Amino acid sequence: MADAFGKPRARIVAMNYYGAKELAASFLTVRGNTLKIAEEIPEDKYDFRAAEGTRRVGEMLVHIAYGPKFNEQINLVEKRTSMEGFDFMKFRDGFAAEQAKPRTKAEIISLLKDEGEKFAKALESLSDEFLGQSITMPPGGHPPSRTRFDMLISTKEHEMHHRGQLMLIERMLGITPHLTREMQARVAAMQTAASQK
C-alpha cells in the first residue's frame, strides 16, 4: 500500500489484548458490583423470591459465590482436555448441598469476597498458552470444543446473568440499583455542564 506520494506505507497492526490479568480484573469488577447489590439489599429481604420456583435473594448470592467452582474444577484442578466422563450431576449435587446451608447476610458477603478473590488470583496466574488450550465437549456438545479462556470467561457471564436478575429484584423491593444511580448522576452532571455553557 502506498501513501499519497507513492511511497510504500508501513503496515500498522492493531491488537486488542485480553489475557489472564485482564480476565481477573474484569471478573473482580463484576464481583464488586454484585457485592454492592448484596450490601444494599436489606437482610430481611434475603428470603425474598421473585416468583415461585426461583431462588431467594440469599440463595442466588450463594449460587453466584460458588459460580466459579465448575470452571475451577475443569480447568484448574483436573486440567481436563475432554469433558468425556465428567459426572456433572455428581458435581452439581455436591455444591447444591453446600449452597443450601443457612447463612447470614454477613456470611454471604464474606463468601462472595473470599471466593471472588480466590478465583481472580488463580486467573491472573494463567499463561496465554494455558488459556488457549482446547477442551473437547461431550458427544453432541455445541460447539464441539471450547478454549479454556472461553470457559473461564463464561464464569463472569454467568454472574452477570444473575446480577441482572438481582437488579430487577432490587426494583421490586423499591431499591434503585447503584449502577443506575451512578449513570443518572453522570447524566445530571452532563446536563448541568451543558446548561452552563
Brief overview:
About 60% of the residues lie in helices and about 5% in strands.
Furnish the topology, listing elements before pairings.
Elements: H1 20-40, H2 57-65, H3 69-77, H4 88-99, H5 105-124, H6 128-132, E1 134-136, E2 145-147, H7 148-172, H8 178-195
Antiparallel strand pairs: 1-2
Helix pairs in contact: 1-5, 1-7, 2-5
Please, could you describe this protein's structure?
With 197 residues, the protein is mainly alpha-helical. The protein has a domain at 53-176: Four Helix Bundle (Hemerythrin (Met), subunit A) (Up-down Bundle), CATH 1.20.120.450. The chain contains 8 helices and 2 strands; from the N terminus they run ααααααββαα. Strands 1-2 form a two-stranded antiparallel sheet. α1 (20-40) runs antiparallel to α5. The longest helix is centred in the last third of the chain and has 25 residues, at 148-172.
Q: Which structural category do the helix and sheet elements fall into?
A: mainly alpha
From the spread of the alpha carbons, the general shape counts as globular
Terminus-to-terminus distance: 45 Å
Number of helices: 8
The main sheet comes to: 2 strands, antiparallel
Strand element count:
2
Computed Rg: 22 Å
Which features characterize this protein?
197 residues, mainly alpha, Four Helix Bundle (Hemerythrin (Met), subunit A)
